[in-house]
Q: What sequence folds into this?
């Protein structure tokens, strides 16, 4: 494994913008015995670093600062100047990625192969800069945390009663902390992602693999066991450090320090709000979001300026095929129950149907009352597709699915099978059918290639395009259409 560089970062985090300035945070990781570098925004004063965390001989620093709303803004960290497209008031380009890794031995993959789409995205940014990078889940594939300590390895293969009885020792906690901490450092040290992280402000939300596979959809005795809760707590702290640039005591600027049960994120820009509900912190086999998550999500919608477009980051697709038939199959076919948590991860699971309907009704009401054209941005399924559902007022909810940026695509047979399932249709709200559609210029409903999504606003018009590893660029389609 390539040794980590002495300093890792900066990683930029979007905190919102208006017509005059772009609000940012930057995270930098240095050795404990190295003075933190100075960060100076263009035309501004040096930002004061805040120590977020120290462990394993390294310190995580955060700098809060702002840049003028200019296409050619910049900041200097140490001796290096980084350009930022900080004007979000006019034309703007946004990239969306998800599923940055694979389930096992992700760190052992050759960098050129693993980061091929990151390399393409970085090159596109250099030619036509992005103002925002949205990262919709599974930024870290942390499943191998269960191999980071012998007791964790035994716990992973033990029976449910054995899992419930296993203590989470101090040694196990330290092994898990080391695994997550160094995995994030390894991710952020890779050249192509690092090039973007330093120049494009990001908004990130986690999904199950950022904890470990299936978190929240596994049986409750596993989730509530000492090891299950212990691993979640460690993963949550590391997620906050490296994906939010925050801690419970030092939340992102402008966020309520008391908001701990849900890590829902919101960033406001001119005529655009990005809302990322936390679909993992309170997830159970019978719920996607708990009271805190729903309250934070509904508050974010209610506080959106009238007429703003909304980009809703749902780590798992809000629009998807009917799954009840597949779940019934699991009830009767031996040895396939191991896939149950994958189905429970989806909004469309029969266990979540009432909550799924609540989500769709909430979005419909928000669009109607606030004149908020919206698009759902999703990943998770390692395929590219899109979906539509009509609202009662005649507008259409668009869903754009892009994943994975690094995860290998599933087989064509899998994509065709899922497409067949989608062809049967689904209508969670009576008279408002969900339609899953191929990407522009493609025929299968699901495209099995690595990919990323590009949203672009020119004047008042928004469009979406997918960049596919083999097929290249799709044609553009109009989204976020409204008055």
A:
């Amino acid at each position: 494994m390539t040794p980590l560089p002495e300093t890792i970062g900066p990683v930029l985090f979007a905190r919102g913008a208006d017509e005059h300035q772009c609000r940012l945070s930057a995270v930098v990781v240095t050795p404990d015995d190295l003075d933190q570098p100075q960060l100076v925004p263009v035309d501004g004063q040096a930002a004061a670093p805040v120590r977020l965390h120290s462990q394993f001989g390294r310190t995580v620093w955060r700098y809060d600062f702002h840049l003028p709303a200019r296409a050619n803004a910049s900041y200097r960290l140490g001796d290096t100047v980084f350009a930022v497209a900080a004007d979000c008031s006019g034309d703007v380009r946004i990239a969306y990625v998800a599923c940055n890794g694979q389930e096992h031995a992700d760190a052992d993959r050759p960098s050129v192969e693993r980061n091929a789409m990151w390399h393409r995205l970085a090159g596109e940014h250099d030619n036509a800069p992005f103002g925002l990078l949205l990262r919709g889940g599974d930024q870290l594939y942390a499943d191998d945390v269960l191999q980071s300590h012998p007791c964790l390895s035994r716990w992973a293969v033990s029976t449910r009663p054995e899992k419930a009885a296993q203590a989470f020792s101090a040694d196990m906690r330290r092994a898990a902390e080391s695994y997550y901490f160094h995995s994030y450092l390894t991710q952020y040290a890779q050249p192509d992602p690092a090039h973007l992280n330093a120049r494009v402000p990001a908004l990130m939300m986690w999904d199950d693999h950022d904890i470990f596979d299936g978190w929240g959809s596994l049986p409750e005795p596993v989730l509530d066991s000492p090891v299950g809760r212990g691993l979640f707590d460690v993963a949550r702290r590391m997620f906050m450090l490296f994906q939010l640039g925050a801690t419970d005591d030092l939340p992102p600027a402008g966020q309520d320090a008391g908001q701990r049960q849900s890590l829902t994120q919101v960033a406001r820009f001119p005529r655009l709000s990005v809302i990322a509900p936390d679909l993992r912190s309170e997830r159970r086999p019978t719920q996607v979001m708990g009271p805190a998550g729903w309250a934070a999500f509904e508050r974010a919608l209610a506080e959106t300026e009238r007429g703003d477009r909304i980009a809703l980051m749902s780590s798992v697709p809000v629009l998807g095929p009917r799954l009840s038939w597949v779940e019934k199959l699991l009830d009767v076919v031996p040895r396939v129950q191991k896939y149950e948590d994958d189905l429970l991860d989806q909004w469309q699971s029969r266990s979540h149907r009432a909550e799924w309907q609540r989500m769709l009704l909430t979005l419909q009401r928000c669009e109607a009352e606030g004149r908020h054209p919206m698009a759902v941005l999703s990943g998770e399924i390692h395929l590219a597709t899109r979906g539509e559902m009509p609202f009662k007022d005649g507008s259409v909810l668009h869903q754009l699915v892009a994943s994975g940026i690094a995860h290998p695509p599933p087989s064509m047979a899998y994509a065709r099978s899922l497409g067949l399932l989608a062809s049967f249709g689904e209508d969670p709200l009576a008279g408002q059918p969900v339609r899953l559609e191929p990407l522009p210029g493609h025929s299968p409903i699901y495209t099995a290639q690595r990919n990323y999504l590009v949203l672009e606003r020119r004047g008042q018009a928004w469009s979406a395009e997918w960049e596919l590893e083999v097929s290249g660029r799709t044609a553009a389609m109009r989204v976020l259409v409204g008055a």
The longest strand covers residues 21-31. The chain is about 30% helix and 25% strand. Confidence is low (pLDDT under 50) at residues 335-339.
